[in-house]
Amino acid sequence: MEQPSVASGFGASSTAGEVLRGIDLRGKLAVVTGGYSGLGHEMTHALAGAGARVIVPARRPMEARATLANMAGVSVVEMDLADLDSVRTFARDLVEEGNAVDIVIANAGVMACPETRLANGWELQFAVNHLGHFVLVARLWPLLVKASSARVVVMSSGAHATTNIRWDDPHFDKGYDRWQAYGQSKTANILFAVGLDAIGKEHGIRAFAVHPGNILTPLQRHLTRAEMVEAGWVDENGRLVDPSFKTPEQGAATAVWAATSPQLEGRGGLYCEDCGIAPVATLPGESGVQSYALDPGSAFRLWRLSAKLTGDDPADIGVEQARPSR
């Protein structure tokens, strides 16, 4: 799959506020998972500042309401991506309201956690980062179609380069590695965007995957300071020392750019970083997106697996119809 370049006029140091300057989102409805912490908080702030009404599904709703209390046009609704019944209840209530959803940013996630399994045996990172968002989009599908020009932005990471989908053992039943599990979930995020865009574009729904860059946020909650020192991110006192790291305001920029930029009209199924479309990596360790994460056949395969595991399918269509075109 091609990754055509675009000169956005923005870059790695641009902030979410700068990207949205001059863009009027009044009358638009956005759903931002995890929109009260880290990058999500900055996305919510920027979208609401541009006039959008923003709904923040939150696992910790009291904390979310306290954090977002001073933001006009923002509401919080309880939802836990690890509990699919909770996801379905959130979506059902929103569908009953009947308002079109113009933007979904699948931002919430977990990184490099100790081995954790849901009651059904699913590995937590794959379940939360991918499957929970798969079901959310499935259940919000009628509202996305209603918008006529909706965008879904799925937050991924450069960590997708660590592994493709482990098709024979996606839940790490044969031995858990927290970084491989995280990397797999981030590859799944990209493939989901590829598959969603393939079936959604005829309904006016376009999807993008985003690498926000390196940022210190609560996402690192499962890492010790010693680990971050060893990685060269912070010093012994926890102060940031890696100059490649962005601020949260900068880290949120690519997601809101992908969600709103007129430069992306008629495009989709792309992997974005630094407020642009990333190149395809041609060598191991090279920046950009790995070709296996853009493969339409793999996107279709993941779609079938996700629909089988969850019992949900965006657009409620058969998997044969969902096959992404090359």
Write up this protein:
The protein is α/β, with parallel strands linked by helices. The protein has one domain (about 15-215, about 245-315): NAD(P)-binding Rossmann-like Domain (Rossmann fold, 3-Layer(aba) Sandwich), CATH 3.40.50. The chain is built from ten helices and eight strands. It has an eight-stranded mixed sheet, sandwiched between helices. The longest helix has 24 residues, at about 125-145.
Order of helices and strands: HEHEHEHEHEHEHHHEEH
What class do helices, strands and sheet pairing give? alpha/beta
* Helix content, binned percent: 25-40%
Please name the CATH topology.
Answer: Rossmann fold
Number of helices: 10
Sheet with most strands: 8 strands, mixed
**CATH homologous superfamily classification:** NAD(P)-binding Rossmann-like Domain
| Domain module count | 1
User: How many β-strands, per DSSP?
Assistant: 8
Low-confidence stretches: 317-326
Strand fraction: 5-15%
Mean pLDDT: 91
Give the distance, in angstroms, between the N- and C-terminal Cα atoms. 7 Å
